[in-house]
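Known limitations

Files may contain more than one protein. Parsers should not assume a single record per file. Below, a two-record file is shown to illustrate correct handling: read the sequence, read the token line, then continue until end of file.
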Amino acid sequence: MKFLINTKIGLNRGNKRLWLEGVRLARCGFNVGTNISVDTTGDKLTIKRDANADKIVSKRKKREEYLPIIEVTGSKLDAYDIGEQVRVLITPKGIIVSRTTSDTAKKEMLSELVDRVKQGKPLRVCSLFHGGGVLDSAVHDGMSNAGIKSKIALAVECESAYLDASLNNNPHLFDENSVVIESKVQYVNSNASDRYDIGVMGIPCTGASIAGKSKNKLSAAEQHAEAGTMFHYALNFALKAPIVLIENVVEYERTLSFTVIRSVLEEQGYKVQTKVLNGNEFGAFENRNRLCAVAMLEELADLFDINDIVPDVNNQISVLSDLMDDVPQDSTRWKTFQYLIDKEERDKAAGKGFGRTLLDENSTSCGVVGRLYHKCRSSEPYIKASFDDVLTRLFTPNEHARIKTIPSRLINGVSDTIAHEILGQSIIYKAFVKAAEIIGEAVSNFTNSKFTFGKLAA
């Protein structure tokens, strides 16, 4: 008979302790009074019956019987940390104590991270819900500001037009080792041997946003037919990297999905930190709030504080005229949008209070410009013509990029529709460049610390 126990290294009177007791010991021949030897090899500890050894299996009375106890303390546990999960295999031939598979993987991930930075190799990025690569480009730029190289090891995106845009406009993110998959995430196999350094995830927010919940009549984000289960598949990949960056709508932090994400990651030894990043604060014309969530393995997280993600002092919001393209007066972009005027009048008459957002050249801020901006909805901002009291227009794609501080090169060669979709579901670029820079500084500091396999030395 064999027994497998997942337990933790404990603490007793200031010393590490491994405590084993119970019938399972007796079933494998480790009875009360049996002489045993305890030997260590690397991070493995072996306990065997040995008639010549001084140590014996002790006992504890429970009800009317004595249960065998094996207690290991002191230098025999030097390879382990207090609270660390260990795997104890009890067999008639002996007892083998080792790190759990997950714990070993975590230590290896940190060691690989340090080795890649020290060797000047790019960190391996796992990009899920890649879109047009806007978030990944921001992460690359921010890490570069901190002196850390990065390349995409895996990119997954189901929309071919978005993927093509990123491949064409982000050649610096990819190399000969990159794997690019055009697919929904749920159909991508996650192999046990896959390993990354950073997970970057813009998990779909359709079911979490206020507009998405209202439109789809949802009481919870997880009810959304397509986006509701995405957190589950994202977690499969998140646990393959020591650093995970997630961006989403602010409401996502209050969903069951994020509660599960946080709970699972923390159970697996990550520290999860969140902060809302505001567009205006980071110099963007668009007053967009976005949730930034960063999860790091605890050893690394000690050197990272998400509250250090603050705007640079020179971040100033431009007036709209500084961001506008030169659109001729006779351009077909200028329209009356009579149906929106009529709708506004009906809404006011019904006491709904809805009204169009009309901007002029002196405006200094606007509301959120979403993924379906090209559909000319009444709820999003329009630019008023300076030469006509009736004509208005949408932002051009390049203007849309500028109001989010996104480099216009990221939408080169795509249609207006695709450009607005890529930009509308994206981020405030400067905010996430700064987030990645602070993450990169933590990685750099961790690399330069006295790191040894399994622990951070004093």
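...continuing to the second record:
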Amino acid sequence: MRPGGSLLLMGGTGGRRIGHGLGIVPAATAALPPFTAALALELAPVRVNLIAAGFVDTPLSATLLGDKLEERRAELRATLPIGRVVSPADVAALAVHLMTNTALTGATYDIDGGQQFVW
């Protein structure tokens, strides 16, 4: 990667919530922010950042939730401060910003519609 380039990692907010049946997922996602910060120092001047997504309305989400998808969407629209579900376009816009803003490195950026503040 060229100096000044950008490495963007994708993770989730699942590391902040421990639950039965989640296995290693919370531990793996919780390890990503310090890993990102360490990589930013190690790889500088390559910039390294992490997107930590909450629920994003994707085909994978639809597959995982099956017939409970509409119920989950309605719940999120009713409880999230943004009043809607996070879309892939929202995540893409953040990714483009992180890759083009040359002042950002070593940080984790949550994109969860404010979910962490209401649950």
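Parsers that stop after the first record will miss the second one. For reference, the second record is described as follows. The chain has a mean pLDDT of 93.
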